[in-house]
């Protein structure tokens, strides 16, 4: 993976990213079709709970906050735009997040309707890719997505480390960059082998890191960037900033606590 993570993006990476997204769309469609052919036709149908309480309900918040970590790539996306402006970045982010929301919603809804209350972890454990050709093709696409996505997602992590140690990614030696990426890949492999459930990752990373990066830090940056007061920004931005901060604190405290409590 180290050799697959260059310091500069290129057209090949963009092409792989596009193909990865096509496979994800296919897998979501396959989940909808599988649910219509199996879970929705089952007699009796799987147990469906409209509402839930306790730690199960709270832990879902961390998974939701996890999605806001996507803004780690905001600066690189801004630099790669042909005519970068804050408005164009906002519109592009809105469209992309909207598409991702639709895919997540369909996958979550029809996956739950297909298996009911048995769906407590990853949906990939519930299908049989050997006997079901449609889902088997989807699993191949997911495997491709993971391989491509791992290298692409490593880029902002690597850049964050370089920023902390004051290293310029554009002038850093290739072999040193390869060693850093290989070490991060090794850590990811060890974590994948010993972490018992993906929900633990979503809970801890989403609740703790997502709460800080997606909510608390942005609100503090707005508050302390200068010329920020009720009279200068108005009621809407003033209350929205505090609302963002409060949501982040709730996410960090309750999201992290629920993930730890669920594993004890």
Q: Between the first and last Cα atoms, what is the distance in angstroms?
A: 34 Å
For the largest beta-sheet, the strand count, sense and barrel status come to: none
Low-confidence stretches: 1-10
Number of helices: 8
Helix and strand content put the structural class at mainly alpha
Strand content: under 5%
The averaged pLDDT comes out at 79
Number of strands: 0
Q: How helix-rich are the residues, as a percent range?
A: over 70%
Shape: globular
Task: Write structural notes for this entry.
- It is a multi-pass membrane protein.
- This is Putative amino acid permease.
- Residues 21-260 form the Amino acid transporter transmembrane domain.
- By secondary structure, the chain is an all-alpha fold.
- It has 2 domains: 1-192, no CATH class; 195-264.
- The protein is built from 8 helices and no strands.
- The chain has helices at residues 11-37, 55-66, 74-80, 86-115, 133-164, 174-194, 198-223, 230-263.
- It is globular and about 65 Å long.
- The two termini are 34 Å apart.
- Mean pLDDT is 79; it is low at 1-10.
Give the SSE layout:
Layout: H1 11-37, H2 55-66, H3 74-80, H4 86-115, H5 133-164, H6 174-194, H7 198-223, H8 230-263
Helix pairs in contact: 1-4, 1-5, 2-7, 2-8, 7-8
List keywords for this structure.
mainly alpha; single chain; 264 residues; 72% helix; 8 helices
Structure summary:
With about 260 residues, the chain is mostly helical. About 70% of the residues lie in helices and about 0% in strands.
């Amino acid at each position: 993976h180290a050799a697959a993570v260059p310091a500069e993006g290129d057209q090949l990476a963009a092409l792989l990213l596009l193909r990865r997204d096509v496979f994800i769309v296919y897998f979501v469609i396959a989940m909808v079709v599988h649910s219509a052919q199996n879970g929705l036709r089952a007699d009796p149908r799987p147990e469906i709970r409209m509402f839930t309480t306790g730690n199960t309900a709270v832990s879902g918040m961390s998974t939701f906050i996890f999605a806001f970590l996507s803004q780690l790539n905001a600066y690189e996306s801004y630099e790669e735009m042909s005519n970068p402006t804050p408005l164009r970045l906002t519109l592009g982010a809105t469209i992309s997040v909207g598409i991702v929301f639709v895919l997540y919603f369909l996958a979550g809804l029809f996956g739950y309707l297909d298996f009911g209350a048995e769906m407590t972890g990853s949906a990939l454990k519930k299908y049989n890719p050997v006997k079901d050709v449609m889902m088997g093709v989807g699993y191949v696409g997911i495997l491709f997505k993971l391989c491509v996505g791992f290298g692409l997602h490593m880029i902002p992590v690597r850049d964050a480390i370089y920023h902390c140690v004051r290293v310029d990614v554009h002038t850093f030696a290739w072999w040193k960059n390869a060693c850093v990426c290989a070490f991060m890949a090794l850590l990811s492999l060890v974590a994948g082998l010993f972490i018992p459930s993906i929900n633990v990752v979503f809970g801890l990373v989403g609740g703790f890191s997502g709460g800080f990066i997606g909510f608390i830090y942005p609100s503090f940056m707005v508050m302390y960037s200068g010329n920020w007061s009720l009279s200068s920004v108005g009621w809407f931005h003033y209350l929205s900033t505090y609302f963002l901060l409060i949501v982040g604190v709730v996410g960090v405290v309750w999201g992290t606590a629920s993930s730890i409590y669920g594993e004890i």
